[in-house]
Write a structure and sequence with these properties.
By secondary structure, the chain is an alpha+beta fold. Helix content is about 20%, strand content about 25%. It folds into three domains: about 5-130, Immunoglobulins (Immunoglobulin-like, Sandwich); about 140-310 and about 350-600, TIM Barrel (Alpha-Beta Barrel), CATH 3.20.20; about 605-699, Immunoglobulin-like (Sandwich). The protein contains 16 helices and 32 strands. Helix 7 (about 370-380) runs parallel beside helix 8 and helix 9 packs antiparallel against helix 10 (about 480-490).
């Protein structure tokens, strides 16, 4: 019989209190994973059960505290080590923020996202958002970011040609040497990567273990990065298919893109545009056949000066089937899509508002045009619907959209409703720096690119480098307290449904490659040269980072080529081509093994996280879900360390055997399984220099 459940009198509580062992703070635990909140994503007006764990027979009272309300919790079940307390609540529409009060004899303490604390802080309260659901397929999903121009050239017939058009004052260039480093002003260089190349390498991605492809922008655009969209309705034929290829390249004496007839035909001819859209649909279909989802990049804050609505380059001025752009004609149907400061300069009015002053990135004026507003909502729906069936959006500079916070939030609420109506299981991820709480309240974004609560703290800890390689901080290198502090502080901004779907990246198209950061070289390609990014790198540190990436809560997201040993300073050097034929096959094999471990251990996808160790250059943590527990320990020192760690509070029996799944060191790595004894609730691990270990216990 469960004593606390059936006999709750004060006298009996006092009797048990007198028999209780010393208060054990390490045993206290709760979070908002499915083991401690059920259902983990409750609907509006649904009943939810909240749980709290203590050492067996170790406390007198547990209260769940919401504002001024204290809800008594009762012990509902126990095992050899722990008691589990519960309380049932019916939620409404409002977000619930709570913490726990624990009483044991004369001891009173509190428990929030930081763990056991003496004083509560609302910034660290647990959060439940009724009605907020993020797609289950995205929780812990292994993602792979592809910058298309640099991944694989599968169709040379669609390559951008030298002198095809002008971009930011100069003619574009076709790069014939796939392995050439990007130029310092490499935005005009095109290597020919395309969607056919992605199709050609789909077997590679499947073999690697990828579950989601995230594409950098694919829509018609004059740059290789394509964050200056020209036409949201179509995939760029240079990435897709060119079935009607006529017109002329620019001659030396031609300085305007209205004369770039080859380019104009390629990107305005409906035959090319529709063939390119069809190829994208095929890419998604092939990915889905392999169990791989596809996420598109949505650039909706601004478009490009080439955009058909503005048409500063006069691409569409005389093209068949297109209206006059707002730059060209004051009476353009798109006039209100942009904000013009001078109303007396048509035709060819350059006085439009540009994002951060860039005239190549005209800011979209949603407040001025409901038609534009509805158009972009339609685009949001279009690409996640038949026949394209993409699985979601990554939103570029999403917090900048609109001219006020109120408008911004209103737009993203409508965008979410539109996308989810079309595809309820589509994911909406946003690029964001700083606190994302206002957008992650359940009605706007699903999650974010996790810079603050993953990329930055891990980079500082393992390399001492800023994520652009712009600064080296000796005081942050190996600083475990700073690592845990940053992870806790910024992680508190993200509710669990968002945490489990956050993009956990080591590198991407906006920051230096992580492998380059391991050389602790401050600089950029403009002042150091590209070779400096390759020199002195430490692959062992890279492997440590991958171990953390594949075992931390969230969606581990690999930037193409990281797994193959690609280096590079920040933009544009981080956009080197995938090194086909020159890959680091050992590093690829290591990624495969860590992806396999990640996918084979459900606790690494949706389980709880608990800190286990923190010392100079050493961090340790556990992931557990009631059925299995995984321990991860990282030694970033250049010497061996021995750690004796308590692991029983990771829901591991005090006497048992764990299994080593991975050990990576400065000499290489091994997946040879080895038994690790647990005695009196502790394990002893001898960690070689620059090493990480993954050990697991399964019930």
């Amino acid at each position: 019989m469960d004593y606390f459940r059936y006999n709750r009198s004060e006298s009996n509580l006092q009797y048990i209190s007198s028999m209780r062992p010393v208060f054990n703070k390490k045993a206290l635990f709760s979070d908002t994973t499915e083991n401690y909140v059920s259902p983990a994503e409750p609907g509006i007006y649904e009943e939810v059960t909240i749980r709290f764990r203590t050492a067996r027979n170790n406390v007198d009272r547990i209260f769940l505290v919401i504002g001024e309300e204290r809800h008594a919790m009762y012990r509902m079940n126990s095992d050899k080590l722990f008691d589990y307390y519960e309380v049932e609540l019916q939620v409404d529409r409002e977000k619930i923020m709570y913490y726990f009060e624990v009483r044991a004899g004369k001891i009173i303490c509190f428990y929030d996202l930081r763990g056991v604390v003496k004083d509560v802080n609302p910034d660290y309260f647990f959060t439940i958002i009724p009605g907020f659901h993020t797609p289950d397929w995205a929780k812990g999903a292994v993602m792979y970011q592809i910058y298309v121009d640099r991944f694989c050239n599968g169709d040379p017939d669609n390559d951008v040609l030298t002198n095809e058009y002008r971009y930011i004052g100069e003619c574009v260039t076709k790069v014939d040497d796939w392995y050439k480093y990007p130029a310092t002003m490499g935005v005009r260089e095109f290597y020919g990567g395309d969607l056919q190349g992605v199709l050609d390498k789909m077997d590679y991605l499947q073999d690697l273990g990828i579950e989601v492809i995230y594409f950098n922008p694919l829509f018609v655009s004059p740059s290789n990065h394509k964050y200056d969209i020209q036409d949201y309705d179509y995939i760029d034929p240079h990435f897709g298919k060119i079935v009607d290829d006529k017109g002329e390249l620019l001659q030396d004496w031609q300085n305007e893109n209205k004369d770039a007839t080859r380019y104009i035909n390629r990107v305005t001819n409906l035959k090319n545009l529709e063939a390119s859209n069809a190829l994208f649909a095929k890419v998604v279909e092939e990915a889905h056949k392999r169990g791989i989802r596809v996420i598109l990049d949505g650039v909706f804050n601004h478009c490009g000066s080439f955009n058909k609505w503005l048409d500063r380059e006069r691409i569409y001025e005389n093209a068949e089937g297109y209206e006059k752009g707002a730059y060209v004609d004051q009476n353009s149907p798109y006039h209100k899509y942009f904000q013009f400061y001078d109303q007396n300069r048509w035709p060819y009015n350059p006085s439009y508002d540009g994002w951060w002053g860039h005239d190549t990135l005209p800011k979209l004026n949603y407040e001025g045009s409901r038609e534009l507003y509805d158009y972009v909502l339609r685009i949001g729906k279009k690409w996640v619907s038949e026949p394209y069936n993409a699985d979601g959006w990554r939103l570029d500079v999403a917090a900048d959209l609109g001219h006020s916070p109120e408008f911004n939030h209103g737009f993203w609420k409508d965008f979410r409703n539109a996308v989810k109506e079309a595809n309820p299981e589509a994911i909406i991820l946003a690029e964001h720096y700083g606190c994302p709480r206002p957008w992650l309240s359940g009605g706007e974004w699903d999650s974010i690119m996790n810079y603050d609560a993953f990329m930055e703290p891990l980079t500082w800890f393992l390399t001492g480098m800023q994520k652009h390689s712009d600064e080296y901080r000796q005081d942050l290198l190996g600083n475990a307290d700073s690592f845990w502090g940053a992870m806790n502080y910024h992680g508190a901004d993200i509710a669990m449904p968002s945490t489990l779907t956050a993009m956990n990246e080591l590198s991407n198209h906006d920051h230096s490659r992580f492998l380059t950061r391991t050389n602790r070289r401050v600089g950029r390609v403009a002042n150091c040269g590209p070779e400096a990014a390759n020199q002195g790198v430490n692959v062992a540190v890279m492997r440590e980072a991958v171990v953390v990436q594949m075992t931390w809560p969230g969606a581990p997201t690999i930037y193409y080529g990281d797994e193959a040993g690609l280096c590079g300073f920040t933009d544009p050097d981080n956009r080197r081509t995938y090194p086909w034929g020159r890959e680091d096959h050992a590093l690829i094999a290591f990624h495969k093994e860590m992806i396999r471990i990640h996918k084979a251990c459900p606790e690494l996808k949706t389980g709880s996280l608990k800190k286990v160790d923190a010392d100079y250059n050493v961090i340790g943590y556990g992931r557990f879900n009631g059925r299995a527990s995984t321990l991860v320990l990282v030694n970033n020192n250049d010497h061996e360390v021995t750690r004796r760690l308590s692991v029983w509070y990771l829901d591991i029996p005090k006497e048992c055997t764990m299994t080593r799944l991975m050990l990576t060191t400065n000499q290489g790595y091994t997946t040879e399984e080895e038994e690790i004894p647990v005695m009196s609730g502790k394990v002893e691990l001898v960690m070689p220099p620059t090493s990480a270990i993954v050990v697991r216990y399964e019930k």
